[in-house]
Design goal:
The structure holds 2 protein chains of 2 kinds.
Chain A lengths: L3 E11 L2 E12 L3 E5 L6 H9 L5 E9 L2 E2 L5 H6 L2 E4 L11 H13 L5 H14 L17 H15 L3 E5 L7 H14 L5 E5 L13 E6 L2 E6 L1 H10 L2 H9 L1
Parallel strand pairs in A: 3-8, 3-9, 6-7, 7-8
Antiparallel strand pairs in A: 1-2, 1-4, 4-5, 9-10
Helix pairs in contact in A: 5-6
Chain B lengths: L2 H10 L11 E4 L3 H10 L4 H16 L10 H6 L4 E5 L14 H10 L3 H7 L9 H14 L2 E4 H7 L1 H7 L10 H9 L4 E5 L9 E2 H4 L10 E6 L4 E7 L10 E2 L2 E6 L4 E8 L6 E10 L4 E8 L4 E4 L2 E4 L5 E10 L4 E10 L5 E10 L4 E10 L7 E10 L5 E10 L5 E10 L2 H8 L5 H17 L4 H15 L5
The chains are: A alpha/beta, B alpha/beta.
């Protein structure tokens, strides 16, 4: 089906250990979903597998992007089809300036050199939205960035590259309240019929600023429950144990 | 010559077309060869004697007991041509003889055809000759001498003799002795006091006949308060059938003078590239060496600065890119002889495939060099598991007030870096090239723009299909 990111019975392993054990998930274009769950549930793994991390082996199942099976495509092909992931731990690339990197990425995604004026305008708007300083554009990619700056830089890329489907892997963790608000502002600015996001998070905190359309809970490599925004609030209040008990009891 | 060696010699012979015979081609390393070189150039007697003496020294000096394997070179020494005088009025080789692969690389680098021919050693005239002519007039007006080393000796003998071989005498090392015996080609540069030369002097422009000096000798004198930037070589692969290059470069940086020497070599991968580069820097003077090594089979090159006057400074920035079959042993030397001298070495090496790059450097601080400062940073990037790198940092510090810093890193082209860039839409090859370019950035940002652009293109070509 077009206009959605769909995960069908996805099984994936890392170094021989099965981590995803039959994930089913549908993220329609125009919606923002939250993916929650305790540590080690496989949330980050799901993000990386969707993005095409070669360190993970897909054992079974499919990933469909707008109806196209992308399970075996290299990461850059997925990106060109409109997928983006904001990493939990972005790597440092010394000597590569943020602005140059973004221009190259944009060129690769669209197949043409972005007009310089338009490109700069896009950067400027993104930086303002994040309440950041243009100085970041001439810095080397993530090199010497604080944890919070790295997260903001992921969101900067999100704003500039304008993907159709974005996965944000714990972008909220390690951020102070101002940075958190800036990130939320950015995601809310992108919201619309041509954008979908999957927010991987531990806490309700981010969801106070970005209201999700759906909330999914992952445990032991599977989605064990889906619901509306109230599910996140309930988890915030009661933790995961009650849900774990319910799931294993069922 | 023994029959079994014949094919080897043939491999390395300068491959002339049948109809264009060289006027003179001297093979084998003998006093006879040396005498004939000197005679062919019409040199004064003192130079002939200097050459013959150097040859004796060459025989006596031991081969280096360290560094890359030179045993093959040792065997072949007598098989090389030590002097070839191209026929007057025509290029020695033809474009048709240049291998397709090299031509293709030129095309992909976007080098204009006229320039391609010069690089391949088959062009008779560089097209920018006309452009250069106006530069030359300006230089003459300023009193700057920029001529071939041969012309330097002929036209400015007194000045020449005052400096020649004073910094790198034949006794310095075996290859300096070899060069002293058979030198041919190179530049002679003199910048008068207080003159700042704005345009970089490019050896490239000066070469108006085919071929790059195989035993080039360059002498640069920057007088008090003067300033000059000399550029040698190019990033594009050179085509030559010769397999030995030993150069000697001497630079005299006088009081408060400012000198920069940029060289990039991309010799064919059968080449032994053994070069001695040295500068002597007087009070308040500054020398920058910017050294890029891409080609050759073996390179041994350690640009050195002798900081002789108070407050003299030097920076040595270098890049080495070793691929399978290459061993690039490069580095730098800083010799602090006076107080308040300072130096910086930044060495960036990349090893790809089974390539091997080594950093070999020396920082020496003499007892008189109070408050000397030196900082050494050498970083190695390994592209493949079988790629090799090693570091030999020597320090001889004889003054307690010296401040010396040393930092060395070895990193591997990391999967997580590649993955990160790929998720942004950048294909694997290009992601690898981007990481390599970023790694070299601290040095490439100091390069003249056209060099930097060419180098980046070259890295992209090199990284194609090299990962995954």
């Amino acid at each position: 089906m077009a206009n959605r990111l769909e995960i069908q019975d996805l099984w994936a392993s890392h170094e021989g250990k099965m981590i995803l054990k039959g994930v089913n998930l549908v993220l329609p274009l125009g919606e923002v979903h939250a993916l929650m769950g305790p540590n080690g549930a496989g949330k980050s793994t799901l993000g990386k597998v969707i993005a095409g991390d070669p360190n993970y082996q897909v054992e079974k199942g499919r990933i469909l992007l707008d109806g196209e099976d992308i399970t075996d495509l290299p990461p850059e092909e997925r990106a060109k089809r409109g997928l983006f992931i904001a990493f939990q731990y972005p790597v440092e690339i010394p000597g590569v300036q943020v602005a140059n990197f973004l221009r190259l990425a944009l060129k690769e995604r669209t197949g043409e050199e972005p007009p310089i004026h338009e490109f700069y305008q896009r950067l400027k708007e993104a930086i303002e939205l994040l309440d950041w300083d243009e100085e970041v554009l001439s810095r080397y990619l993530n090199e010497g960035f604080s944890g919070g700056e790295k997260k903001k830089n992921e969101v900067l890329q999100l704003l500039v590259l304008k993907p159709r489907y974005a996965i944000l892997d714990e972008t909220d963790s390690g951020l102070d309240i101002d940075a958190l608000k800036a990130v939320a502002r950015a995601v809310n600015a992108l919201r619309g019929p041509e954008f979908a996001a999957l927010l991987i998070t531990h806490y309700q905190r981010l969801l106070n600023y970005i209201e999700p359309d759906r909330v999914h809970v992952m445990m032991d490599g599977r989605i064990v429950r889906s619901g509306g925004p109230e599910l996140a609030k309930e988890l915030e209040k009661r933790g995961y144990d009650w849900l774990r008990a319910e799931v294993s009891g069922a | 010559m023994p029959e079994e060696l014949k094919h080897i010699a043939d491999d390395y012979r300068w491959d002339f077309k049948d109809e264009v015979e060289p006027e003179l081609a001297l093979k084998g390393l003998t006093p006879e060869t040396v005498k004939k070189i000197s005679e062919a150039k019409g040199e004064p007697a003192w130079m002939t004697e200097f050459r013959l003496k150097a040859l004796e020294i060459f025989y006596k000096l031991p081969w280096p007991s360290w560094g890359p394997d030179l045993s093959e070179l040792k065997e072949k020494l007598d098989e090389f041509y030590y002097y070839v005088k191209p026929p007057t009025g025509g290029p020695a080789k033809s474009w048709d003889e240049v291998p397709e692969e090299i031509k293709k690389t030129y095309e992909r680098l976007g080098i204009p055809e006229a320039e391609q021919k010069v690089l391949a050693g088959v062009g008779a005239q560089y097209d920018s000759e006309v452009v250069y002519h106006s530069v030359k007039e300006e230089l003459e007006r300023l009193g700057v001498i920029f001529v071939s080393i041969e012309e330097g000796l002929k036209e400015h003998e007194e000045l020449f003799r005052r400096y020649f071989a004073k910094l790198v005498p034949p006794t310095d090392n075996k290859f300096a002795a070899l060069n002293s015996a058979v030198w041919s080609g190179g530049s002679f540069v003199y910048v008068p006091p207080g003159v700042e030369v704005e345009v970089p002097l490019q050896a490239y422009f000066r070469v108006n006949t085919a071929g790059f000096g195989q035993f080039e000798r360059t002498l640069i004198i920057v007088d008090e308060g003067a300033k000059v930037h000399y550029i040698e070589g190019c990033t594009a692969p050179l085509y030559t059938t010769e397999a030995l290059h030993t150069g000697v470069i001497e630079i005299f940086v006088h009081k408060n003078a400012h000198s920069r020497y940029t060289t990039i070599q991309n010799w064919p991968t059968n080449m032994y590239n053994l070069v001695t580069q040295r500068a002597r820097v007087e009070e308040g003077g500054y020398q920058m060496w910017l050294d890029g090594n891409l080609g050759s089979k073996v390179t041994m090159k350690y640009p050195s600065s002798i900081l002789r006057g108070r407050g003299a400074r030097s920076e040595v920035l270098s890049i080495a890119f070793a691929k399978t079959g290459q061993h690039l042993d490069t580095g730098a030397k800083l010799i602090h002889l006076a107080p308040d001298t300072s130096g910086r070495i930044v060495s960036k090496s990349i090893s790809k495939g089974e390539g091997r790059s080594s950093y070999r450097g020396l920082v020496k601080v003499s007892p008189r060099a109070d408050r000397a400062k030196a900082n050494v940073e050498c970083d190695a990037l390994l592209i493949h598991p079988e790629s090799k790198t090693d570091t030999y940092p020597y320090m001889e510090i004889e003054n307690e007030t010296a401040q010396i810093g040393h930092e060395a890193t070895v990193s591997r082209l990391a999967d997580d870096q590649l993955f990160y860039l790929e998720t942004r839409g950048i294909p694997e090859d290009e992601a690898a090239a981007l990481i390599v370019r970023g790694f070299l950035e601290p040095v490439t940002k100091e390069l003249p723009l056209e060099f930097a652009v060419e180098l980046n293109r070259l890295i992209e070509l090199e990284m194609e299909g090299s990962v995954g």
